[in-house]
Amino acid sequence: MQEKKDFNLKNNIDELDSLKGWIAVGGAFFATFVCFGILYSFGAFFDSMSSEFQVGRSATSAMFGITTFIFLMVGMVSGSATDRLGPKPVLILGGVIMGLGLYLTSLVTSIWVGYITYGLGVGIGVSCGYVPMLAVVSAWFEKRRAVAVGIAVTGIGFGTLLMAPLAANLISRFGWRQTFVIFAVLSSLILVLCGIFMPRPPLAVSQEPKLSKMELIKMPVFRFLYIAAFLNTLAIYFPFVFLIPYARAQGISDVAAATLVGLIGAASVVGRLGFGAMGVRFSSIRLFLSAYFLLAISFSIWLVAGNSYYLLVAFVLVLGTAYGGIIALAPTVSAELFGLVGLGGILGTLYTAAGFAGLVGSPMAGYIIDFTGNYTFAIVVYMIFGLLAWLALVPVQRIMRR
User: Fold this and answer.
1) Closest CA relative to residue 145, chosen from 226, 7, 24, 10
2) Which CATH number fits domain 11-401: 3.10.450.40, 3.20.20.10, 1.20.1250.20, 3.40.1000.10?
3) pTM score, two decimals?
């Protein structure tokens, strides 16, 4: 019996860094492409929905906040489900729910109902296409894990680059409701196809974690990571929701404003590939810290940009590069700290921090902007959140050295 187990383990190890692993990378790329392309195009819908439902920035942005909260909280469940069942059923279910949620959102007559249809539909869909896929790709690789994860999550960047301007164009031609119908069909089709072809990982990521969730929470290194993720997400989601309305208020056209969010996606591709490649030669936690700091100081460019489109482009390029590095390195840092066993569940637990940040961050920013009548104070506040996130991550480097 032991010889059979050893033989199976050897075969599993031999499959690492194989063609099946790169198929998993491709599936994760397209899953994150459609999920985050749709999620991060929310800013293009912002003004149309706010105007039609006659609500303020805080109430409108709450739809995005609820969605991110759901997708990151449900990620804890979808990650564990992928550990037990494999990625196929999780992706297929996510595609069906996301398509249904977007279609129902196109029919709502109240933004409060949209909180449920969009929040649950897109939230659950993204949770099935993101956290589990990071764990699956991580488990398929050993030597090239950082590079593979970096390539897989470039789907987020390309999705943001293409879908935000596409949403702005479709809304101008067909309206926001019909655009949601188009996105419903697109998301269901792509996620179901990804589920059909996604291979199950060969190694121990498909087991329950060695550490229970309570044991994870008791670890100082996990708590520091959790706090850093919470504060960093507050900063990240602010421009995804409010940069397009800000640019429009400065007299920039709808498509040009949406292109700014698209450029965050383009720059994040560079960040994912660049930081992922450097992860082969340099300390992953040191690169992780660098990306956190770069993201925080990028807000200083937005602070002085005013109506300068060129400075806004500079801001999103720096922000996107840092954001891409953070996304690419987070699974690698987690794997080095906690191991591969049950990584899907561990990542899902860690990312609940971003869920809480998403829930409170966007409505809080909307309230600040409505209260002050401008964006300046909000930009300063969220830059401070980014710097505090970087400071919270510093002890993690010290712990990893020991």
Assistant:
1) 24
2) 1.20.1250.20
3) 0.75
